[in-house]
Amino acid sequence: MDDREFDQALLGAAFDLAAEIGWPRMRVAAAARRAGLPLDRARLRFPHRGALLMQFGRQVDASALANATDEGGPRDRLFDLLMQRFEAMQVHRAGMLALLRALPAEPPLALLLAAATRRSMGWMLEGAGISTAGLNGHLRVSGAVAVWMYTLRAWRTDTSEDLTGTMAALDRALARAEQAAGWLASRRRAAPLPEAEPEELADDALPATAPEAVPETPASPPTAF
Question: Any residues with CB less than 8 A from the CB of 102 and at least 6 apart, and which?
Answer without folding.
Answer: 22, 23, 24
